[in-house]
Amino acid sequence: MQTLISADQIAEKINVIGEQISHDYEGTDLLLICVLKGSFIFTADLMRAITIPHTVEFLKASSYGSSTVSSGEVDIQDFTLNVSDRAVLVVEDIVDTGLTLQYIMKHLSNQKPASLRLCSLLDKSASRQVDIPLDYCGFSIPDAFVVGYGLDVDEKYRHLPFIGIVD
Ligand code: 5GP
Known about the structure:
alpha/beta
C-alpha cells in the first residue's frame, strides 16, 4: 500500500474546511447530507470541525457498474427527508466521473432547498464526464483508484486512517 495523503494532512485540511463552512453558513439552518458509505468517516470528522449548530442526514446511493467503474445509473435508497428551505451541504468522499453526484444534486434541487452545495474530500478531475462544481474540496488527486478513510475496494480498507493506493 502506498500512502497518497497522510492522516495528519487529512486532519489539517478538515480543520481548514470546517472553519470555512462555519464562517459561510453562520446564521443558516445547515444540514449536512452524508453520502454513504464512503463519506461516513469524513462526515464524522468534518462535523467536529464545524463550530456552528448543524444537523446531519444520510443518503445511500448505489451506482450500478463494477466496483471500480461508475456507470452513471444511480439508485437513491429510502430517502424520504424533505430538504425544502434548508441550507443543504452534500458531503462526498470522492468525485470521479461526477455522474453519481450529478444525479444526487438534481434529486435534491428538485425539492427547492434554500441553498445546495457540495463538499468533497477528494477530486479526481482527470476522469470527470460532467461539470460538477466543488464548493469545498480537500485534495485534487491523480487518476488512480484510492482506498482508506472510508473508501473501499470490495468493502475492504475503509478503516485505514490515510488515503492510499493499493499495489
Ligand atoms: P463517480 O464516478 O460517479 O463520480 O463516483 C462514484 C463513486 O465511485 C464515488 O462516490 C466512490 O464511491 C466511487 N469511487 C470513484 N473513484 C474511486 C476511488 O478511487 N476509490 C474508491 N474506493 N471509490 C471510488
